[in-house]
Amino acid sequence: MQKVPKIAVLGSINMDIVVKCARLPTPGETITGHEALEIPGGKGANQAVSASRAGGQVTMIGRLGDDGFAEELWNTLKQDRINTDHVIRTHSSASGIAIVAVEDSGENSIMVVPGANGRVTPSDVDQAAAAISKADILLLQLEVPIDAVERAISIATDSNVTVILDPAPMLETVSDKMMRVDVICPNQSEATALAGHPVGSIEAAIAVVPLLHQRGAKQVIITMGSMGTIVSDGNSIDSIPPFKIVAKDTTAAGDAFAGALAVRLGQGASLVDAATFASAAGAIAATRLGAQPAMPQRKEIDRLVKP
Fold first, then answer.
1. Which one is catalytic: 66, 158, 255, 273?
2. What is the pTM of this model?
3. Domains of the chain
4. Has 124 been annotated as catalytic?
5. What is the mean pLDDT of each run of 10 residues along the chain (307 residues)?
6. What one-character DSSP code corresponds to residue 146?
7. Sheet holding 96-103: strands in order across?
């Protein structure tokens, strides 16, 4: 029986309004979509669902509004056995929403309105300090205010809890404090912004890894989509080939990756093994429409990793 790791997730909780279309509109253009759907999302909640389905015991830390979406988003988390004791209802505020356009190729374009997510505070994080300090892994993204993220890093670091940062959505600047984490897992564009050098190939990704270590990250994972994944533990750099899939919607593939990564690292797997497992989770999610509904179950990931 494998360990069930405790994962604390600080992050956003959104309702995604997903519009399916033949192609994404160009600036100033109006097109007709195929279908519109309301699907629970938000990078934090997506990663919490991913981690729970991959085998973790998950606590969510964040905020919902007092609108019609709040109860549905709350219940969705509970249905995936996620502890919501530290999800705060925010009076006189809408819950976060995202407008997601998904073209037939699987590519997407997203606009996010933070709503209650923008009102997460360091005090909220302090109220969840016990949950963070007792966790095996703290999983973070950048869709809630940065002072709350930095406070969570401080609590986890003081408690020797492993911190994983998914630096998305990318900010104009990422502080040195946020870079001093155990694992940072940017995609190509985020790695480009963090390192200040373009990451358009596997060779380029390998070249910027030392720069990310120099900024403070102990371990670095750069996800490269169809090119695979680059993994560095600070001593050696490995390349993980991609899983062969036909993408339907890449919206939350990175969130599936991060949640699954947290679980396997929390179970004591090596960085390469954990990233391989996470890559399989991300690949499965990319074959499905939507965010949280696309997150795979543990048995599905295991089957893809070990056919």
1. 255
2. 0.94
3. 6-24+34-305 (3.40.1190.20)
4. no
5. 93 94 94 93 97 98 96 97 98 94 85 95 98 98 96 98 95 88 96 93 96 97 95 96 88 94 98 98 92 95 91
6. H
7. 35-41, 14-21, 96-103, 108-113
